[in-house]
């Protein structure tokens, strides 16, 4: 014990500074922990609170998917995947369908949702068409944000060329 007292007396300033640094470090760690780890484990935060007030049932999405698939002259495959407050539409089109017709059909699917639902949910569209001898095919993505202007914003289309090896 006498040894510690001697070290303290000889290095009083250093011991006090070290104590202040340790106390500041602990305070900073506590502040950072409270700021970043509040205890809410929800990865989407409070963005889904409005979605709980305006629910869309799984049966309704299944019915919409079946309705899209029934249009066999235009759509070869359709899928709707909900995730949080976003609905992902993946639509595969027949070779005869043009890009503009595909965009129009995707836009019409929004008519199936009410104004309240459109104000809460985001909609993502992936429109695909395989390349054939008569058509280059396309890939294009679009999105409609709940807070957006109400229209789908489309990206640049990518032409899908038929591979020369496939025709042989």
Considering DSSP H and I runs of 4 or more, what fraction of the residues is helical? 40-55%
Low-confidence stretches: none
Quickly name the level 1 CATH class of the largest domain.
Answer: Alpha Beta
Class from helix and strand fractions: alpha+beta
Major β-sheet annotation: 6 strands, mixed
The number of helical segments is 6
| CATH architectural category of the largest domain | 2-Layer Sandwich
Write structural notes for this entry.
- With 168 residues, the chain is α+β, with helices and mostly antiparallel strands.
- The protein folds into two domains: 2-36; 57-159, Alpha-Beta Plaits.
- The chain contains six helices and six strands.
- Strands 1, 2, 3, 4, 5 and 6 form a six-stranded mixed sheet that branches.
- The mean pLDDT is 84.
Features:
alpha+beta; 6-stranded mixed sheet; 6 helices; 6 strands; elongated
Write a brief structural summary.
The protein is about 40% helix and about 20% strand.
């Amino acid at each position: 014990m006498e040894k510690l007292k001697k070290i303290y007396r000889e290095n009083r300033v250093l011991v006090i500074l070290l104590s202040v640094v340790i106390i500041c470090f602990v305070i900073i760690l506590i502040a950072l922990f409270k700021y970043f780890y509040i205890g809410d484990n929800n990865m989407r935060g409070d963005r889904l609170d409005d979605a709980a007030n305006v629910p869309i049932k799984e049966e309704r999405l299944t019915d919409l998917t079946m309705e899209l698939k029934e249009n066999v002259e235009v759509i070869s495959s359709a899928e709707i995947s909900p995730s949080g407050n976003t609905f992902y539409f993946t639509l595969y089109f027949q070779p005869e369908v043009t890009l503009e017709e595909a965009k129009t059909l995707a836009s019409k699917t929004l008519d199936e949702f009410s104004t309240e639902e459109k104000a809460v949910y985001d909609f993502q569209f992936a429109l695909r068409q395989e390349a054939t001898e008569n058509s280059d095919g396309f890939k294009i993505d679009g999105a409609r944000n709940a807070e957006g202007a109400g229209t789908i914003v489309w990206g640049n289309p990518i032409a899908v060329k038929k591979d020369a090896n496939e025709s042989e």
